[in-house]
Design goal:
single chain; 232 residues; alpha+beta; 9-stranded mixed beta sheet; 4-stranded antiparallel beta sheet; 6 helices; elongated
C-alpha cells in the first residue's frame, strides 16, 4: 500500500497532518526519508515518524478549560497546574501547553506532545479573543492600543453588567488590561485561539481531545507545493 494509507491506518494523524509529516521530512522507511504520499510500503518495512515506530507514536492533542489560579505547567505533580488536571493515562505523555495564559485568567488552553504541531500552530500567529464582565450599565472606555485588533462592549440592562471583549495576539496585555477594569465580576476568560473556540460543553477544569477538523484548522492550510505533491 502507499505510505499515506499506511500512516492513516496506523492513526498517525488527519490526512492533512500526514501530508505535513511527509513534507517536513519526518517519515522514514528503512531509514530513508520518504516525502511522497504515493511511495509504497511493505508490511516488513521499518516505518518511523520522528524516529519512533508508527505503533509507538500516538500523539495527543488536547483542549483545556483552565481554572483561575492554575499555571500552564503540564507537570502533573505541580499543584494548581494544568498538568494536575490530567488523568493517569494522559500523564504518560510529555505534554506542552501552546501560548501563554496567565494564571489569573481562565479559559482556552491547547496542549500536545507533538512539538511540530505546536510549532505549526505558533507560526500561524493566531489572535485570541478575551472577555470580562463588569458591573453596571456604563461601558468602560479602553485606551487605544495598536495590539488590539477589535474591542467590543455589550450592555446587559436586565442583569446590570457590561461584557467587554477584545481580540489580540498579545494575550498577556489583554489579561492585564481587562483584569484591571473597575468592578470586574470575575476573571478574564480566553474564548478563542484563531479558528478554535472554547467548547461550550467543556466545564471549567475539564479537557478533551481536539477533533481532526480542529487540528487541521489550527495548523492552517497546506501551501500549493504541498497540495501539488499530494496529487502526484
Amino acid at each position: 500500500m502507499n505510505i499515506e494509507r499506511y500512516l492513516t491506518e496506523n492513526r498517525q494523524g488527519t490526512p492533512l497532518q500526514i501530508l505535513r509529516l511527509l513534507r517536513q521530512g519526518r517519515v522514514t522507511v528503512n531509514a530513508d526519508v520518504v516525502d511522497s504520499p504515493r511511495a509504497t510500503v511493505a508490511v516488513a518495512d521499518n516505518v518511523r515518524v520522528d524516529g519512533m515506530t508508527v505503533t509507538g507514536r500516538q500523539p495527543q492533542y488536547l483542549v483545556f478549560n483552565k481554572p483561575v489560579g492554575f499555571q500552564l505547567s503540564m507537570d502533573p505533580t505541580t499543584p494548581h497546574s494544568v498538568g494536575s488536571l490530567l488523568n493517569a493515562f494522559d500523564q504518560q505523555h510529555q505534554l506542552k501547553a501552546l501560548a501563554d495564559l496567565p494564571k489569573e485568567a481562565v479559559g482556552l488552553v491547547v496542549a500536545s506532545d507533538d512539538e511540530h504541531f505546536l510549532t505549526d500552530v505558533t507560526l500561524q500567529n493566531w489572535p485570541s479573543r478575551f472577555q470580562v464582565q463588569v458591573s453596571g450599565t456604563t461601558a468602560p472606555v479602553l485606551a487605544p492600543n495598536q495590539a488590539f485588533h477589535e474591542v467590543k462592549t455589550q450592555v446587559d440592562q436586565v442583569h446590570q453588567h457590561v461584557t467587554v471583549t477584545l481580540t489580540t495576539t498579545d494575550g498577556e496585555m489583554a489579561v492585564a488590561v481587562l483584569g484591571t477594569l473597575p468592578d470586574a465580576l470575575g476573571p478574564v476568560e480566553r474564548l478563542t485561539i484563531g479558528p478554535l473556540s472554547l467548547p461550550v460543553d467543556l466545564p471549567v477544569g475539564a479537557y478533551r481531545g481536539l477533533l481532526p477538523t480542529e487540528i487541521d484548522e489550527l495548523t492552517g492550510p497546506l501551501d500549493d507545493d504541498d497540495l501539488a505533491k499530494s496529487e502526484n
